[in-house]
Amino acid sequence: MKNILIIGGAKGIGQAMAQCYLNQGHQLISTSRQYKHCDLKQNHLYCDLNQQESIATAFELIRAKFKHIDVLINCAAVLHTDHYQPEKSLKRVKQDHLIHNYQVNAIGHLLVLNHAEKLLSRAKQAVAVSISARIGSIEDNHLGGWYAYRMSKAALNMGIKTLSIEWHRKHPHIQFILLHPGTTDTALSKPFQKRLPQGQLQTADETAAMMIEQIEKNQQHSHKEALFLDYAGQTIPW
Ligand SMILES: NC(=O)c1ccc[n+]([C@@H]2O[C@H](COP(=O)([O-])OP(=O)(O)OC[C@H]3O[C@@H](n4cnc5c(N)ncnc54)[C@H](OP(=O)(O)O)[C@@H]3O)[C@@H](O)[C@H]2O)c1
Questions:
Q1: Number of the ligand 1 atom closest to the C-alpha atom of 47
Q2: Is 75 in the pocket of ligand 1 (CB under 6 A)?
Q3: Ligand 1, residues 11, 180, 194: which to mutate, most atoms within 8 A of Cβ?
Q4: Given pLDDT bands bounded at 50, 70 and 90, which one contains residue 110?
Q5: 49 in ligand 1 pocket by Cβ < 6 Å?
């Protein structure tokens, strides 16, 4: 039985992954802004990546109950809100939207890992997964658009790759993976599903099963640097 921590485990892909791990009999700890109060019995913790203090509080509670984490999966990201949509052109780019995307999609992931270092280092073999997106690949960018989301995912990739090099020296048993889930039917992708070619939209359950397979395949390795993979295990260029 592994200790699995999912940041953003109450919605979309995170929720589907949480259910898979529960079905496999693992110990699950899940965070969400929907959990208004921390419920330690259920391992449900409030955590808002926009608020440093809430990350610190969630981890204080986790450390009080658990000695180690085997698998940390950070699913948190924002693409659109009630107040803004992804930008098709520079004219639509707004400073506060950029900052919000960076805060949740990139900075928040690094802050979480800072708090998780001891817990991951105490596992025999640990894996730290950040759900990224192919759109964060600089080399693969032939479409343009979606500035804030695209830039924040590229920043996430750079942050995680940099951390993987730093920690490889002291914690070679922690593997980092940036995973692209593929287009999945969730609230995040809902407004952009109309023009998708038939058969390209995965359910959250399908995505979760494929991602867990990739995590298991790569967990045993001790790659010096983070991997950037899609749901089928194909390497994505940086
Ligand atoms: N769906 C796709 O087609 C697709 C494609 C490529 C990449 N992805 C990536 O897959 C991951 C999961 O997305 P999804 O499709 O499952 O979308 P979703 O259903 O909208 O879930 C978004 C997740 O982000 C969390 N989140 C948002 N703002 C947060 C904040 N301030 N603090 C903490 N958590 C926050 C939400 O948690 P709360 O419960 O707190 O709201 C939720 O768990 C994201 O990283 C996304 O970029 C998705």
A1: 33
A2: yes
A3: 11
A4: very high
A5: yes
Please name which of 71, 83, 77 lies closest in space to residue 184, comparing C-alpha atoms.
Answer: 77
Q: From 75, 110, 177, give the residue whose CB has the most ligand 1 atoms within 8 Å, as the site to mutate.
A: 75
Locate tokens 């079905």: which residue? 23
Q: How far from 179 is each of 89, 135, 205, 211, 238, CA to CA, in Å?
A: 27, 12, 16, 8, 12
Length of the chain: 238
Delimit the domains of the chain by residue range. 3-230
Report pLDDT digits (tens) over 44-93: 999 999 999 999 999 999 999 999 999 999 999 999 999 999 999 999 99
Q: Which residues contact 178 (CB under 8 A, 6 or more apart)?
A: 129, 130, 132, 156, 157, 160, 161, 226, 227, 228, 229
CA neighbor of 13 nearest in space, from 102, 113, 129: 129
pTM exceeds 0.90, yes or no: yes
Considering the domain 3-230, what is its CATH architecture? Answer: 3-Layer(aba) Sandwich (3.40)
